[in-house]
Amino acid sequence: MIREISTGAFLCLPLVILLWQGSSCHSANSNMNSNSGRSENVNAVTNANTGRNAGTSPESVVGVWGGLHINLEVNESGAEITYDCAHGSITEKIVPDQDGKFVVKGLHVQEHPGPVREGDEGKGEAATYSGSIDGETMTLTVTLPAKQETVGTFTLTKGKTGRIRKCA
What we know:
The chain is α+β, with helices and mostly antiparallel strands. It has two helices and eight strands, in the order H-H-E-E-E-E-E-E-E-E. It has helices at 2-50, 58-61; strands at residues 63-67, 70-75, 78-83, 86-90, 101-110, 125-134, 137-144, 149-158. An eight-stranded antiparallel β-barrel has the order 1-2-3-4-5-6-7-8.
């Protein structure tokens, strides 16, 4: 009789362990889900309290932005720009205001078709890059103040590579 009880207990033991583990995992997942919800609520309140649209924060600007005839690679301290027949750089950190607008300084270098001759490397000229960001869309206007000339206004999308045709 003792042998029958010990055999029954031995066979039921794995079942008891599985049931016990399943309930502890379930309660751990429940705790994780409820904590996750709380942190999302805290983040929503934090964003609301800053008075700033999360889509226009300096951190959200960093990355690749592209459009017709332009490609922009934004980093923490500025950006590199490639156009069809030019290139440039933004030498200041892009920090949009609460409406998503910004104005930064940089350089613009006009290119020409064919090889670049020694001594003909363009050093560029001062440029003003002004624009606005609305979600994943940026509007960028490039102006050359010394010539009082607007190079162009471009529409860029975050995460897209620009469509550029180098001058031939």
